[in-house]
Amino acid sequence: NAESQGHDEL
Amino acid sequence: MNIFRFAGDMTHLASVLVLLLKIHTIKSCAGISLKTQELYALVFATRYLDLFTDYISLYNTLMKLIFLGSSFSIVWYIRYHKIVRRSYDKDQDTFRHYFLVLPCLLLALLINEKFTFREVMWTFSLYLEAVAILPQLVLLQRTRNIDNLTGQYVFLLGAYRALYILNWIYRYFTEPHYVHWITWISGLVQTLLYADFFYYYFQSWKNNVKLELPA
């Protein structure tokens, strides 16, 4: 999910 | 979440609020580049595609809604609001921003972390954000007289990405698998584009003179 792809940032 | 990233998000939030405040209260967008605002709306639209699919946190969702809402409403104000649109200087705001969109899209198709639609769109939004400020910086050079709110807007916008760089350094050292070269390089390029603006901004602040950019 977004966390693993590092897309947890805005 | 770390202090650098939170400070970066708050600085970014402050930049859009300063801009909305300026446009909403004095009903003017003088000195503001519509092209940069349109590019930012596109950045958020392509970056937050996961808004309704990946729930990360209330904070994350809330901030995404705020950034999407503010960027699109700023574009609406400058384009359609009957009073604000009169102060839009379209003869000066002539940067061909479509020439920024296409190369960013092509680059995102070539250099990305994973060749999926979402990932390419996300990478495109990163590259586009790095150059989105260019029409605004060009407009500031042309109009020369930078009013305080516009100067603060650009300053906060640059400061947010500089804080994000500290966040990436912090995460690199604290999270073992946190490596995102694409994010880091485009974020660095973005911050470097503000470097000369920062220099003149601090000079004017230090000498307590009006902010002037060299032609």
UniProtKB/TrEMBL annotation, chain B:
<feature type="signal peptide">
    <location>
        <begin position="1"/>
        <end position="31"/>
    </location>
</feature>
<keyword id="KW-0812">Transmembrane</keyword>
<feature type="transmembrane region" description="Helical">
    <location>
        <begin position="55"/>
        <end position="78"/>
    </location>
</feature>
<dbReference type="InterPro" id="IPR000133">
    <property type="entry name" value="ER_ret_rcpt"/>
</dbReference>
<keyword id="KW-0813">Transport</keyword>
<dbReference type="GO" id="GO:0046923">
    <property type="term" value="F:ER retention sequence binding"/>
</dbReference>
<keyword id="KW-0732">Signal</keyword>
<keyword id="KW-0653">Protein transport</keyword>
<dbReference type="Pfam" id="PF00810">
    <property type="entry name" value="ER_lumen_recept"/>
</dbReference>
<keyword id="KW-1133">Transmembrane helix</keyword>
<comment type="similarity">
    <text>Belongs to the ERD2 family.</text>
</comment>
<feature type="transmembrane region" description="Helical">
    <location>
        <begin position="152"/>
        <end position="170"/>
    </location>
</feature>
<keyword id="KW-0931">ER-Golgi transport</keyword>
<feature type="transmembrane region" description="Helical">
    <location>
        <begin position="121"/>
        <end position="140"/>
    </location>
</feature>
<dbReference type="GO" id="GO:0005789">
    <property type="term" value="C:endoplasmic reticulum membrane"/>
</dbReference>
<keyword id="KW-0472">Membrane</keyword>
<feature type="transmembrane region" description="Helical">
    <location>
        <begin position="182"/>
        <end position="202"/>
    </location>
</feature>
<dbReference type="GO" id="GO:0016192">
    <property type="term" value="P:vesicle-mediated transport"/>
</dbReference>
<keyword id="KW-0256">Endoplasmic reticulum</keyword>
<keyword id="KW-0675">Receptor</keyword>
<dbReference type="GO" id="GO:0015031">
    <property type="term" value="P:protein transport"/>
</dbReference>
<protein>
    <recommendedName>
        <fullName>ER lumen protein-retaining receptor</fullName>
    </recommendedName>
</protein>
<feature type="transmembrane region" description="Helical">
    <location>
        <begin position="98"/>
        <end position="115"/>
    </location>
</feature>
<dbReference type="GO" id="GO:0006621">
    <property type="term" value="P:protein retention in ER lumen"/>
</dbReference>
